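Why Proline iminopeptidase? Reviewers of the renewal asked for a concrete example.
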Amino acid sequence: MALYTDGTVPFLVDGEEFKTYYRIYGPLSDTSLPPLIALHGGPGIVSYYLSPLSKLFERNERQPVILYDQVGNGRSSHFPEKGAEFITIKLYVDELANLIHKLDLKEYHILGHSFGGCLGAEFEAERHPAGLKSLILTNTLVDMRLFYQSHAERLATFENAEELKQAFAKGASDPKAYREALNTFNERWSLRHFKERPLPDDIDPFVWLFGDEEKGIKGDRTVVDKMVEDKKWSIVGRIHLIKVPVLLITATDDMIQSYAAEPFFGRPRRSSGPTWSTRAICRFGRSRRTICGL
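Here is what the prediction returned.
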């Protein structure tokens, strides 16, 4: 039996068709265990770095795992001509609902990392899908203002903080400086416990942002540059709308500090939230034993 199956499903938006790429580990025909759908972060990166979650299926062949690239990213349809009014969190909520419908999933669990956690929480709060059994929210946040506060505090730990801040502010106008700043920042706050260099293909989430000529990948920053709504997103006043059980995972060394997600603790029913004090868990490679319980 093949380890995984790749495919696409059509996604219609106002009569325009896009394609959502997915990868399924394990057969969906065995319904004894609901599949786990993993939502990648960003917005604007891809699902490659979540591939270690496939260990769940490798250890239990009745446990399917579904990864997919959100439209505008990776192996899904791209739309560089679209503006900020098109690229919204509602677009991605609709895409997730469409994927679930096209794959004919009756029951499922969702794991959302970083922006994927925001997406998963938004999906439950706004849709209350009947098939959703639980949410796993890892290294995520309840309000973008808390994210920017956390990011500024993490940035301040660098001796060249002002230089990095200016590079982040330039963004698309100076992609080389932006990428160098991002790499520097991530080495300390996303990858400090992951020692392998260069990053394996299935761990590096940024190759589709900046491109890689040797691998024939053209970079596309459309989503990360144009998703303006994401900068104002908040679910603080709607946390009570989350009805399914929630597992919240944070760690003291993460890029997004724990306080940005802690409001989730008090409001969702039957939520639980471990915090690890010695490692960052925003990558799923080295610390997958912690995250997947393997």
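The first strand starts at residue 4 and ends at 13. This is the kind of structural detail the renewal will allow us to pursue systematically.
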